[in-house]
Amino acid sequence: MKKPELLIPASSLEVLRTAVIFGADAVYIGGEAFGLRAKARNFSLEEMKEGITFAHERGAKVYVTANILAHNRDLDGIRIYFRELQEICPDALIIADPGVFMLAKEICPKIERHISTQANNTNYLTYRFWQEQGAKRVVSARELSMAELRELRANIPEDLEIETFIHGAMCISYSGRCLLSNYFTGRDANQGACTHPCRWKYAVVEEKRPGEYFPIYENERGSYIFNSKDLCMIEHIPELLESGIDSFKIEGRMKTALYVATVARTYRKAIDDCLKSEELYRENMGWYREQIAGCTYREFTTGFFYGKPDENSQIYGSNTYVKGYTYLGTVSALDDRGYCRIEQRNKFSVGDEIEIMKPDGENIPVKVEELLDEDGNSMESAPHPKQKLLVKLNGEAGGYDILRRREE
Asked: Rounded to an integer, what distance in angstroms lies between the CA atom of residue 352 and that of residue 368?
């Protein structure tokens, strides 16, 4: 079995660095336009350049999404954008639209072209078609089973790569082509502006009784008829390895550094353990389950891998996430007194019991002994997001370690 690439999402330069340090072989990011996560913070060209340099210095790759379904008005801007990307040279562009693909092939031919899941890639002839156009990799539709993925691998050239989502949020629409957001809010999901109406509350209204709302499934919170569980394949790494998939992809370009660190570290260890021996992988299953449940999620499903999802793949009582840990910040450096420098993400206080989460898999319980602001003033708590702090712990932290607090 060949070693697959572990491909991790990043919403910012900080998260890209976290992904690489915690085990990503490659990271996919979006620019400030033409990607399907317009609400994400995304990357300026300068940040992209810095992120690519950081990744390349550590042996990782960076892919840039340009996977909107383009309108005529988008094309001139895409031409300019691709000329700019040609200068900073990411490792690949992820594209859904054939017209955008043609522009990439013309303007930046030296950058690999990968075909987005948004292009509905469900059969091996589609894969062969895209290879003939010059694609190096095709991202499979999420609607494919494990058996279909094996059949794909057996019927395409060996040098054509398969990328498949193995973890993260599921979409209620076929290959992500949803119209609900556009219909309700005027914000087009296929242009990167999805408002996620699949997570909203719904009820039925009978035509002749306007204003009378009948819950489809009733409890005190409302009804969530489109609310899918999250995909998680941590318990099925051997089957994924045997299927011939080249790249294991994690969903989540809107997620925090804690989420990215958690999924990257867990899947990195699971893949590496399984490649050493399946017995070792089975022995460590409890650790994988415990760690992956520590990041924010909506309960887990195996999606389409083992048959079509049924009513058990939906969550009907709530649209909220399960939250195992709160992200406090990432250690950027230690000063000469041993204080951790962080940019705070959530409130914590002197005396709190927290954890240092390390890239090698270790989690160290520590106590917050002291907090100082940028000017060295003592503080009892840190209530302001993005505040730069010096934190004294009764345990040793290093650069890029994550500080987190367990939530009961």
From this structure: 5
Q: Does residue 159 carry a pLDDT above 60?
A: yes
The model's pTM is 0.86
Cβ atoms of residues 263 and 296 within 8 Å: no
Q: Please write the tens of the pLDDT for every residue from 222-276.
A: 445 566 788 999 999 999 999 999 999 999 877 889 999 999 999 999 999 999 9
Cα dist from 361 to 24, 193, 265, 401, whole Å: 14, 36, 7, 11
Tokens of 28: 């996919």
- Assigned token pair, 324: 């195992």
Q: How far apart are CA 307 and CA 324, in angstroms?
A: 29
- For the segment 77-106, the average pLDDT, to the nearest whole number, is 96
The C-alpha angle 82, 255, 43, rounded to 5 degrees, equals 25
Please state, in angstroms and rounded to a whole number, the distance separating the CA atoms of residues 379 and 377: 7
- Report, as an integer, the average pLDDT of 143-148: 94
Residues 203 and 216: their CA atoms lie apart, in Å, by 6
What token pair was written down for 12?
Answer: 């910012």
Helices (H), ranges, 22-158: 45-57, 72-88, 98-107, 124-133, 146-154
**272 with 359: CB under 8 angstroms?**
no
Integer angstrom CA distances of residue 371 from 238, 271, 364, 386: 45, 38, 19, 14
Phi and psi torsions of 334, nearest 5°:
-115, 140
pLDDT of residue 316: 47
**What are the residues whose beta carbons fall under 8 Å from the beta carbon of 101, sequence distance 6 or more?**
95, 113, 115, 133, 135
State how beta strands 325-334 and 61-66 pair: unpaired
Contact status, residue 374 vs residue 342, Cβ threshold 8 Å: no
